[in-house]
Design brief:
This protein is 21% helix and 22% strand. It is an alpha+beta fold. The protein folds into two domains: 304 residues, 3-Layer(bba) Sandwich (FAD/NAD(P)-binding domain), CATH 3.50.50.60; 131 residues.
Amino acid sequence: MTDRHPEHPEHADVVIVGGGMAGLEVAKELDLRGAPDVLVLEAGPADDLTHVNAAHDADTALRMWLAPDGDPHFWRPWSSHSAPHYLGVAGLRRRLGGRSLYWHGVTLPVENWALREPWWPAAVVRDLTRSWQDGPSLLTRVGTDLRDWAAADGPAPAAGPDTLGLGSVRLVRAPQAVRAVPGPDDHRWEAYSPLTHWEQGLDSRRTRFATDTRVLTVRLTEGQVTGVTVRSGPAGAVRTVSCRTVVLAAGTVESTRIVAQSLGRREPFDGLVDHLAQGFVVALPPDGIPAGIAAAADAGAFLYAPGPPAARSNLFVRLYRNRTGAVVLDTWLMGEQLPGAEGVLRFSPDADPQAPWTTAVSCGLGPRDTEVVAAQRTALREFWEQFCLASGRTATPLEFPDFESAERILEDVLPGVDEAPADAVPVTWTRPLGTEYHEAGTLPLSRWLDDGHALRGTRGLYVAGPASFPRSGAANPSLTVLALARRLAALLPLGPPAPTAPAAGAREVRP
């Protein structure tokens, strides 16, 4: 499937930078359109194309998520100037498939209160939520296709009840694009990846993959894309792949670095956001647990409900049994960080003119983000009280660590729960910004991109992925990423552009 030859392609009609969720979905859709010459450039290898929860037992997969230093594909191409944010587990997964081989398949759409004008362009809102090409909306179509994919080999076993009521909270099963896979135990599964489009092998050479190839810059002449400059391997030679169309899908930070370096722009890029997440986990004795909750724990239920409006969040609940037989209640809220001046990317040239520019991240909470953090804590305390009331327990007060210092984070708490004795006191946690892996917002539609996903002031340069989100909402971004990738692939012009005479003094825009 991958281009493993020592000689590398010198030309393509369309170059896609990044072989993760967004880039591969664009490539898949272009292949379905019959695009004749698409090249995917991925900075990592293609030695293993298996989802981590299919390749490993549950404990190992969890460690690869919470302690990614043990993952050879973990990569952080930035430094953080606002520790602990964008440190720790924050980073990319540099391999063909990217984070699509790690995610848990949650397919919630960006909420209507965030996916609206004037933040998002009217045409994009219409296509995502109302109708696309005289049919169902893109979000509806992608959701249907993901359900069909998950059920292709028979539906996966249901993880708990469809609904569960706890006081005034009505939880429903969290939608997930996952399916069971054969393995040495009964708990192996995979989440959707566009790589499955090529899982049987692709005889056509319409789509090519060049791995271990990092893009340095996009070459521009009078605003028109003419190619990409790449380095293959850690010490490989720098070379150029000529093309007229480039789609940047290398992750929010890396795609923004490529834009900065290609334009020679040294001014900061603001608007960087991640989701705001905090929660608590507790192991409870099974005695006295209501039958519905106990059955949900036995089935390993994963449920959610929209949080209160002030929290701009979704409430998630996992119920399961740990090794001691205790019922584990794992609860968290994930909410929206609004784009603003608090999240900034800065880029500066490296001493080597043929090296990627140095990337630094600075971030923090804005006033409205602080309001969300406080509203999340109120909602978590109220949910815990209702859970205790339903199970005849006394609610232990929940005290949360300081969000900015992140003195007690999920990675410190969750691994020990499987061995925790019953009747343990609830342990609260926060997650630093960047560690939800939902970085977004630095190249948003309307501001940096036009309605066709093209970078303003250029011809042939497009952006895919969460970098293009004007607002993230509270939802996991993947469903919206897939929908926008399909929209971009349908709008990309295929074939040679109309010839234009070069302007006098035409030159490449280079750092």
